[in-house]
Amino acid sequence: MDTTCRCDRRTVLHHAAVGAAGASALALSACGGSDSGSGAGSSGAEPDAAAGTWRTAVETDSLPEVGTTVSASAGESDLLVHRSAEDEVLVYSSVCTHQGCTVGPGDEEFTCPCHNSTFAAADGSVISGPAQSPLPTVEARMTDDGAVEVKV
User: What contacts 59, CB < 8 A, 6 or more positions away?
Assistant: First the structure.
């Protein structure tokens, strides 16, 4: 039986990253302790780590016009904020799903400068490759004063 691995570099790195992420999640969950709800310092107001934290991505004075997009960031997340209607924004990760380059904003579509993948502003779907997966969406909301917040 031949047990030689015939994996290319990308496959090996992918499997190593998946394994490391799983080990990290396991280590973090082990550090979490139990949540009985009656512990000291448990105010109930702390954000749920799994649910994310709301952060401002675009201030009111930088909000794009309807039909346009701006680049933004919240925490360590690089984003594309597309204003699809007066009271609605669509937010996507600006990291290309092909090889991780930063996708630039556009009005109806976004283009990756590295290999020219294009994505639809309406839903983040791939218009043309080489990318095969859509841009990940980010949960977003507009505040009463018109700022855009995202959950990261």
Answer: 147
- Which among 96, 86, 148, 143 has a CA at the least distance from the CA of 119? 96
Q: Could you tell me the pTM of the whole model?
A: 0.65
Do 138 and 150 form a contact (C-beta atoms < 8 A)? yes
**What number of CA atoms fall less than 13 Å from residue 10's CA on the CB side?**
2
Contacts of 85 (CB under 8 A, 6+ apart): 66
Alpha carbon separation from 149 to 81, 97, 113 (Å, rounded)? 10, 23, 27
pLDDT averaged per 10 residues, the chain (length 152): 45 42 37 39 42 86 89 90 91 91 91 92 92 93 90 88
Mode of pairing for the β-strands spanning 140-142 and 109-111: unpaired
